[in-house]
Design goal:
The protein is α+β, with helices and mostly antiparallel strands and about 425 residues long. It is built from six helices and twelve strands. A five-stranded antiparallel beta sheet has the order 2-1-5-4-3, covered by helices on one side. It has a five-stranded mixed beta sheet with strand order 7-9-10-12-11. The protein is rod-shaped, with a radius of gyration of 46 Å.
Length: about 425
């Protein structure tokens, strides 16, 4: 019993839509690496700027504490001297050369002692502060850090004020220049981080894409296998139940059911064996053993093999240059066996085959064409897909799982060859294989 019903496989329109989505994803991935790398670079920039700001702030606080501590020591030294000897000996105190001081009366604002008469009278209220006045001097601004302390001496409230010029302080200068230096050092770091992140994201996306493609392929594979095996299993189950109920008592039905079960079992075994072969090839478990042979002899061997089984088939062999090829003859034989078997299925027993070889530059092109109906425009883009079986351009009564040309393509890729399909000038199908010499 032959299988009946609609052709299995994904409809052409649905396949076209899937292919379009796949192409869209292919176009999307190359454009993802750049914005991803840009985001990573911006993240690095924000992190570096934040760390720089924190570092500068911490350093500034450290410098401020050091300056305040120095001002406190000077005030303490001046206070001790006033309490012991009065204000007359202040000019002889061993103060750092960059420290200016003023001692003045808190109420009358009268200056009692100072080493800088231009220093304004200020009150920091016990805390270290900065004071800035533009154009204070004829040639520069006044920019100082100062600290004051109130003391009582001879029933007077005195203010001790110590200060130093921030503009000439080396630590302060360093702090003011540090952000600019950090910015200049950050620019090459950003470019480096962008380049590294671009390479990393590109390789990561490529790995993710491959993983997703593998997942999609396995998902499609599982779906296709389940769909392909569902019909023979259903037929076997139906005939087994038929025999169990009453078919075993009817010799005609018994023979018909046994034939159907054997036929479907053979089909299932063929599908599983083919899939295992494809898996071995794709996983690199089948070794390629190249030898040198003449193409004409190879074609003649194919002709004799097929005409022995199908005497009605006729062959035309064209190899004007009597080309010699280095490849795996056995694997190439498997490819052409698939191609010629397909021609036999769709062109019928009076199938006419033309095997042709020609040299094109550093390549040899082998082709097999028949006198069948050829490939329709809807079928042609999908002829090498697994489990795909054509539409109305092919005979719906032709059996097969739609794996033959997929096997041929897998073997061709393993040989380092290119395989393509089309129609010849007479309307029949033509499959071309291009190999290196």
């Amino acid at each position: 019993m032959k299988k009946k019903g609609a052709l299995r496989g994904i409809p052409p329109l649905e396949r076209v839509a899937k292919n379009r989505r796949f192409v869209a994803r292919e176009r999307l991935f190359p454009s993802v690496s750049f914005p991803l790398a840009l985001r990573f670079m911006l993240l690095i920039a924000v992190a570096m700027l934040s760390l720089s700001l924190i570092f500068v702030f911490a350093l500034r606080q450290s410098v401020t504490r050091r300056q305040t501590s120095e001002l406190e020591k000077c005030i303490s030294l001046i206070e001790d001297s006033i309490q012991k000897t009065g204000s007359e000996e202040l000019s002889f105190l061993p103060l750092p050369y960059y420290i200016t001081y003023t001692v003045y009366d808190s109420q009358s604002r009268t200056v009692i002692s100072t080493n800088d008469s231009l220093l304004p009278l200020l009150d920091s209220q016990g805390k270290s502060r900065t004071y800035f006045e533009k154009d204070f001097f004829t040639d520069s601004d006044l920019n100082i850090r100062y600290l004051t302390k109130n003391i009582f001496f001879d029933d007077k409230k005195l203010v001790i004020q110590c200060a130093f010029d921030i503009a000439n302080d080396s630590a302060t200068k360093m702090l003011s220049e540090l952000p600019l230096l950090a910015l200049f050092s950050l620019i090459p770091l950003l470019f480096l981080s962008f380049a590294l992140s671009f390479l990393i994201s590109k390789s990561t996306i490529a790995a993710f894409k491959k993983l997703r493609d593998d997942y999609d392929r396995e998902k499609a594979f599982t779906s296709n296998v389940s769909h392909e095996l569902k019909t023979p299993i259903s037929i076997i189950d139906g005939h087994a139940n038929l025999l169990k109920r009453w078919g075993k008592d009817d010799p005609k039905q018994l023979a018909e059911s046994i034939d159907a079960i054997l036929h479907e079992t053979e089909s299932m075994n063929s599908i599983v064996t083919t899939l295992l072969d494809m898996s071995r090839i794709e996983n690199g478990k089948i070794k390629i053993e190249k030898t040198r042979f003449f193409v004409t002899n190879f074609f003649v061997s194919l002709k004799e093999e097929f005409t022995t089984v199908y005497p009605e088939m006729s062959f035309e062999i064209i190899d004007e240059d009597f080309l010699e090829l280095e490849s795996d003859e056995q694997k190439l034989h498997q490819i052409f066996t698939v191609i010629l078997s397909n021609s036999m299925k769709f062109a019928g027993r009076d199938c006419k085959i033309r095997l042709k070889a020609n040299k094109n530059g550093g390549k040899i092109e082998l082709s097999a064409s028949d006198n069948g109906k050829g490939f329709s425009e809807q079928v042609l883009p999908h002829v090498f897909e697994r489990f795909y079986k054509g539409d109305s351009s092919h005979d719906r009564n032709v059996s097969g799982a739609g794996l033959g040309l997929s096997i041929a393509k897998t073997l061709a890729l393993a040989l380092g060859a290119q395989i393509s399909a089309g129609n010849n000038g007479y309307g029949g199908a033509e499959v071309r294989i291009t190999l290196g010499i």
